[in-house]
Design brief:
This protein starts with a helix and ends with a helix. It is of the alpha+beta class. The protein is globular. It folds into two domains: 46 residues; 227 residues, Deoxyribonuclease I, Chain A, CATH 3.60.10.10.
């Protein structure tokens, strides 16, 4: 019971710090002494297909993965091929819960496959409270695919993120992308879409998504740099993505060349302009709760 209360107090303190931090940005006075008409939130997003926590050398290395995420210091993390008490390759560990505990982050999960007590699918980790989450399986007759969606609260502002892993069949990928778009069309507010899409930019599924969302790597100096390591060790095509709705600005993008998986991590630093009065209003509501 004591541990439970320690965790609750820790979470509440984290939320208060976040609110104060963002409020200080939003309410900072200009040189003329007046409040700014707009303020900006900065957000760092990381996505990686973790291959069940198995690195390039075929070794299960959850600690190495956790240390890498810590070094990036992201606000939001999207991981694909996440084992949760799933198989021997990951020592039947619950990667989702263990990473969340190790990194002190909130999390949500979508299960694509289940057996016995185990699950396999997609994970979102958030430095900020998750106020809503939703997961759904995607259409297809081959290996079942899914997506997980979260709405997170950042200093009173709600930001949306979706993480998915599309199939190996071109026709199935297109159906799955259409389902993601159908869901995204129901979401209000800024949205980041991440994942392993298993297709290059000319793939019909990828093209359908990038017609709606901004392809951040394409707009960066990294262009068409590959995100998947071939069996010979060379870098293959670009099949992993961070996409964003038009509200976001892009400040930095990077494809990290490491050996934590057979995929490479993508990191994007985004900006989101907001009106200061919106933060004041939302913070006022929060202060009544915490």
């Amino acid at each position: 019971m004591a541990e439970k209360w320690k965790y609750i107090i820790k979470v509440h303190m984290l939320i208060v710090i976040m609110i104060l931090t963002v409020s200080s940005v939003a309410l900072a006075e200009t040189e003329t002494g007046s409040l700014p008409s707009m303020a900006e939130l900065r957000l760092k997003v990381l996505t990686l297909n973790i291959h069940g926590g198995v690195n390039w050398y075929g070794e299960f290395d959850l600690e190495g993965l956790a240390r890498f995420i810590e070094s990036v210091n992201p606000d939001l993390v999207s991981l694909q091929e996440v084992d949760r008490v799933w198989s021997g390759r990951s020592r039947f560990q619950d990667i989702g819960a263990e990473l969340a505990n190790r990194l002190t982050m909130f999390y949500a999960f979508s299960s694509s496959l289940e057996r016995n007590q185990g699950m396999y699918g997609n994970l979102i980790l958030s430095r900020y409270p998750i106020v809503q989450s939703w997961s759904e399986k995607l259409p297809g007759t081959l290996e079942t695919r899914s997506y997980v969606f979260c709405q997170v609260l950042i200093g009173g502002i709600r930001v949306n993120i979706l993480n998915t892993h599309l199939g190996l069949s071109e026709s199935e990928r297109l159906l799955q992308a259409e389902e993601v778009i159908r869901f995204a069309n129901q979401i209000n507010g800024p949205l980041v879409v991440t994942g392993d899409f298993n297709g290059t930019k000319d793939d019909p599924a990828v093209a359908s998504l990038t017609r709606i969302f901004r392809d951040l790597q394409q707009d960066s100096a990294w262009g068409e740099h590959g995100t998947f390591r071939l069996k010979d060790g060379n870098i293959g095509g670009r099949i992993d993505y961070i996409l964003a709705s038009p509200e976001f600005s892009l400040y930095h993008f990077e494809v990290v060349d490491n050996l934590l998986s057979d995929h490479l991590p993508l990191v994007a630093e985004l900006g989101l302009w907001i009106e200061p009065f919106e933060v004041i209003r939302m913070n006022g509501e929060n202060s009544g709760v915490f």
